[in-house]
Amino acid sequence: MLTPEADIHVDAALVASLIEAQHPDLAGPLALVADGWDNVIYRLGGDLAVRIPRRQVAVQLIVNEQTWLPRLAPRLPVAVPVPVRVGMPSSDFPWPWSIVRWVDGIDGADVSGAERSPIAGPLAEFVAALHIPAPAGQDVPHNPVRGVPLATRDRAVRERLEHLAERHDVAPLIATWERALATPPWSGPAIWLHGDLHPGNLMLTAESPRQLAAVIDFGDLTAGDPATDLATAWLTFEPDARAVFRERLQQLSPVNDDTWLRAHGWAVAMGSALAAHSDDNPRMASLGRHALGQLSLPA
Hints:
Elements (H helix, E strand, L loop, with lengths): L11 H11 L7 E6 L3 E6 L3 E6 L5 H14 L10 E5 L9 E5 L4 E2 L5 H4 L3 H11 L23 H11 L6 H11 L9 E3 L8 E3 L7 E4 L6 E3 L2 H4 L1 H5 L2 H14 L4 H20 L5 H14 L4
Helix pairs in contact: 4-9, 5-10, 6-10, 10-11
């Protein structure tokens, strides 16, 4: 399966014209950094980046970041992409977009699982800080594929596993998925979630040992079952670092066994998506291979 086609082609000329029209004081050289499933990222000069949707489905995700990251950022222990300027819909581009601070570092998808090991503790600290109940009665973003009961994802996950079975032994993944489905669903308050906590959304320091420099891409921000974010234990780490992540999280914000079982299931859901939809994207395909490898290990 391939990366979804863009609804609007976003190139440097378009981004430059939007900045010139709305934020001319920030105009500067642009360099393409990422062309993802939902958004395009251009570095703007030395200190900024432009985050702009390439698909209609991503528009609300940009709005979610613009609305909530300024409120959440003060409690988080690492940098997050709080918008410093907001781009408004116009005749040149019909959707909102953001200018954020640039964070120097290395994409977590570009290093091995072993190189990501040193961030296990800091990532647990980030998760513990984020995972508080979302405010009741406020317009918290709804996400139909994150934070929800696992049973609602059953059909999509099984379809992906069937597709992957042409190239992988998916029996361990099916067994993990079915154990997670049999686990009682989350019954606590809706907890703030990043929603897409895989290595491609983690920025690491350039020097070794790697440190956690920032957590980016909060487009899937929502509230619900905290097990969703805990899937990063398998998406990001190898066994030893996974144990460190879990131990540190237990020290800060204890997680019961049912939640860890659901997290294992969420890792199947998210890892299978990365693996099944990245045939034309080597970066995301590498994340999918890592996830499938970790999920195939004994629990």
